[in-house]
Specification:
With 307 residues, this protein is α+β, with helices and mostly antiparallel strands. It has twelve helices and eleven strands. The strands form four sheets. The protein has a four-stranded antiparallel β-sheet, with no helix packed on it. The protein has a three-stranded antiparallel β-sheet with strand order 4-3-5.
Amino acid sequence: MTILTINDYTDSLKQHINKVQDLPQYTVLLSPSPAQLRNYCLGLCKEDLSPDDKIVLKDFFRGDSTELNDIVKSINRFELGWFKPIQSFLGKKTDTSKNHAVLEIVALMYDYELRPYGKFRRSTLDVVDVQEEHVDSTIVEEKEEIVSEKIRVPPVQPFKETTTPIATPEKKKSKNRLLAIVASIVLMVGGGAVVSNTLSTDKCMKWEDDKYVAYDCGEATIQSFAGTNSEPVPYDKSVVDNFKQITVDCNTVFFKKNKPQVWFAKIGDNRHEYFSSPGTGVHPTLGKPLKAITQYHLNKYIYPKCK
């Protein structure tokens, strides 16, 4: 049985979305606001939810249990800024989501038949035909046959001396065809190895405590983010080296040569979090834009505490 990866799951989910996104029940998801996403998720909380769906909702919204009442409470207290990864995925601002939990909640929103990923992984399918509600189980077999045909090499005949060392034009053409086949096979196998190595060494960043940490973007890393609010982002050495959450006071250097040295985001009433650089431009967990420090901000929120 073919073992399907998280990338296969993502591709199949996207194909499903493309087929059903214009149906009336899904058009709100074409360009949703955070509030619309929250209300849509509340609408999913019905008695006929499967146990797997309840687990997806509980994990994503950090609920206490899979009881519907608890899930509804979790959704209502979920901060709207935390819906941004779903917005990015639905708006196709990211080619794929590295957050396993986001994929599962989107699959639930679009009623994808082969959710969650564990169910998809156990299947031997690549594509689901939503309109006909059946699965074409021959796709994988056809791919295997095509690959098998491509790598079949004609047997090499033992070398024999001939009394006519000069090859005829027909023999030269046959030899050239054989060499072309062998070269194609070598390029195909070698190219596959290069692609595989490139993917396996792909780097991402994950927010941990007060800084970004470099991670491999492989499947094991993707699953390690399930149920968390920390979505991995493409690796940026400058961000890893220079972007930190910091504590500020009256002795902090906020400007150098009239240029800001601190950035911030509002996290509540008169509450802010501060960072040592603009980083990726947004708060690492809330998704809110980071703003450069200003004299107005200092006079209102920082300096009054120094008196």
